[in-house]
Amino acid sequence: MGHYILKRLLSLVLTLLVATVVIFVMIEVVPGDPAAYMMGLSGSTEATEALRSELGLNMGAWDRYISWITGMIKGDFGTSYTYRVPVSDLITDRTLVSVPLTIYALILSTIIAIPVGVISASRRGGFLDTLLMGAAQVGVAIPNFWFAILMVLFFSTSLRWFSAGGFPGWDAGFLECLKALTLPAISLALPQAAILARVMRSSVLEVMNEDYIRTARAKGLSKGQALMRHGLRNALIPVLTILGLQFSFLLAGGIIIESIFSLPGLGRLVFQSIAQRDLIVVKSIVTLLVLAVVVITFVVDLLYAAVDPRLREGKRM
């Protein structure tokens, strides 16, 4: 297991290093001059050059890359061109919204999807299976921002159970913040739950056809007992992959939902920074999102090895 973890850690570091190079190059080739954009049409050439020097934009590409990477390793992400505050402070404030929202949505998605997938598989071909998978298909087809608009109209405008948007801040209390994140979390969770439920159903059906399940049934276990005691653990292996991908998607892909509900999250910050040509913020956030994806993939690999010992045994061979 130690050898397996070491190889995965090495892969993580190399992937992250390559990702930083790609991110830096992609940001650098974006047309436009951030200094000229910030100075506006009335800015003089001298003032623009002074600002470029202050922001470090007059250095060579290699020097800027090394300075950026070295600073990130030390925890210094630079200073935002637009807000004139440390990027780390901006990211910390927005992470306190995006990460809880992502975890909340993932928990809701899992709570909904796994029971639905198991029930649907156990009633294969029946009315309940058709009903649940039909609902899942609708959930896959309908975009989450449409769910968000409907819930704002129904729960906020009509029933007035929730606010239509905004985030009170954690100083207002946990329950108030949880209430503010509920509609956005449901909007993100429902489409993901539909995908996860279909994967869970397929995985359970595949496991139930395995020889060890038939052996367990031959020993007197019921279908449900055989599934819960022997099959469910193996059925969760492909589900772990989807959960890892969904966490990354929910963390990085909530721009529209954050905009609909006026949440000060990472996605909205990236969108605003791109519009304002605040490239240092864009580079830092995208790199952190890549780091999150890579780390989550690493954790999923470890969970694979924990669930199925054959995987780590294969790595030793």
What fraction strand?
under 5%
Biggest sheet architecture: none
Q: Please give the alpha-carbon distance between the first and last residues.
A: 12 Å
Looking at how many chains there are and whether they match, the oligomeric state comes to single chain
Note the run of SSEs as H and E: HHHHHHHHHHHHHH
For the secondary structure, the number of strands is: 0
Radius of gyration: 24 Å
Tell me roughly what share of residues is in helical segments: over 70%
State the helix count.
14
The average pLDDT score comes to 79
Provide the low-confidence segments as ranges.
none
Judged by helices, strands and strand pairing, the structural class is mainly alpha
What global shape is seen? globular
Set down the secondary structure blueprint.
Blueprint: H1 2-28, H2 34-39, H3 45-55, H4 61-73, H5 87-122, H6 127-141, H7 144-158, H8 174-208, H9 211-218, H10 223-252, H11 255-260, H12 266-275, H13 279-307, H14 309-316
Helix pairs in contact: 1-13, 5-6, 5-8, 5-10, 6-8, 7-8, 8-10, 9-10, 10-13, 12-13, 13-14
